[in-house]
Write a structure and sequence with these properties.
This protein is α+β, with helices and mostly antiparallel strands and 367 residues long. It is built from eleven helices and six strands.
């Protein structure tokens, strides 16, 4: 039978897309709800515990915290949601016996699935954009609420924060209070390189001057170590280092690198270009959104086995493919973050293997 060439966004495309959107909403609710309940169950006792001063965080703080955490949970499981939505869509079409009439009219399975794959591409781009928007705007607010839940009567403090520059300069903050007005530091030390000299800066405390955009030191002094002598002098302002409170908070969040945005990773890479963790994360944040499309290529062909009564088994097999992908992705990412594998290989091998398999499986669909 001669195949028909349908225009995009016609009646068939709109029909399949509507099924996908409905299925995506269902999968989103199920998975996010499941992960939210699991997180709440594991942390609720700590969040509701009364501290040594007899204080407990209000319920409103707990609600706001989880509202801000929802986007981060979504970013962790978004490709799995997309796969589930695609499988629900195809399974519904098969159950309603709507695939056979489409094939009989001369439309191939590949053409029928074009709207689903286009949705996967849109979701990949949206996932990347959402990470940039969410991480840049609400990550610090989420962290502040989490600290308040665990320490309701204490001011938030970030301990042992090290901030680096490409030149090799380093500023170490023993205790950083980002929510103070203005942000302040207790016990600061810095090592700055100036040619063949090393400049050591020490201060008992410091605070951020938002108007001058400098870190003002209290009881600060500078020691210049040259080839012949050591010069010690008082110092009121941190000089020779591009410090900002936001940069300090970014370095602190880098302890959990998955909480960083792509632009933040680029900033840290520019300061530490040899750091394997930041290089791996840079590639990973590019490739992980592509899993929205790649998992559809791998999982959907499994459903097109036209024998009756095996829908549940085919859905389960598609889920196993997804779990296997996430396991491989986790192993390679961990190797890259730990420096045991090239960042390029750690970031791209899982998506290339799964993508190649998906293209082969999709091309082999009986149509």
């Amino acid at each position: 039978m001669k195949r028909r060439h349908l225009p995009l966004f016609g009646r068939l495309d709109r029909y399949v897309t509507s099924h996908f959107i409905a299925s995506y909403s269902t999968a989103l609710f199920l998975l996010l709800g499941l992960f939210l309940i699991m997180d709440l169950t594991s942390n609720l006792d700590d969040f509701l515990e009364v501290d040594a001063q007899g204080h407990k965080a209000p319920a409103g703080v707990l609600i706001r915290y989880y509202l801000l955490k929802l986007p981060f949970l979504f970013l962790e499981v978004a490709p799995f949601i997309t796969l589930m939505a695609g499988m629900f869509t195809v399974n519904r079409l098969l159950k309603k016996n709507e695939v056979t009439p489409v094939l009989s009219s001369g439309v191939s399975v590949h053409r029928m699935l074009v709207p689903v794959f286009l949705c996967g591409c849109v979701l990949a781009v949206s996932m990347f954009a959402l990470r940039e928007i969410v991480v840049s705007n609400i990550a610090d607010k989420r962290d502040a609420l989490q600290f308040q839940l665990k320490h309701p009567s204490e001011e938030r403090v970030l301990e042992a924060v090290a901030v680096h520059e490409l030149s090799g300069n380093t500023v170490f903050l023993e205790r950083f209070y980002p929510d103070s007005n203005p942000p302040r530091v207790e016990e600061l030390s810095a090592a700055l390189l100036d040619g063949d000299r090393t400049i050591s800066i020490q201060a008992e405390a410091a605070y951020w001057d938002p108007e001058a955009k400098v870190l003002r030191l209290q009881n600060g002094h500078r020691s210049v170590v040259g080839s012949k002598e050591v010069v010690r002098e008082d110092l009121d302002v941190l000089e020779g280092f591009a410090f900002t409170p936001q940069l300090a908070k970014t370095y602190y969040r880098a302890r959990n690198p998955m909480d960083l945005s792509f632009s933040e990773v680029q900033e840290l890479m520019s300061r530490e270009p040899e750091d394997s963790a930041f290089n791996t994360l840079w590639h990973y944040l590019l490739t992980f959104p592509l899993a929205n499309l790649v998992l559809l290529l791998v999982g959907l062909p499994v459903l097109f086995q036209y024998e009756r009564g095996k829908g549940a088994e085919r859905m389960a097999l598609g889920g196993i493919f997804c779990i296997f992908y996430f396991a491989v992705d986790f192993v390679f990412r961990s190797l890259g973050l730990g420096g045991g594998l090239s960042p390029i290989l750690a970031g791209w091998i899982p998506i290339l293997i799964a993508g190649s398999l998906g293209i082969a499986l999709t091309d082999g669909i009986r149509t």
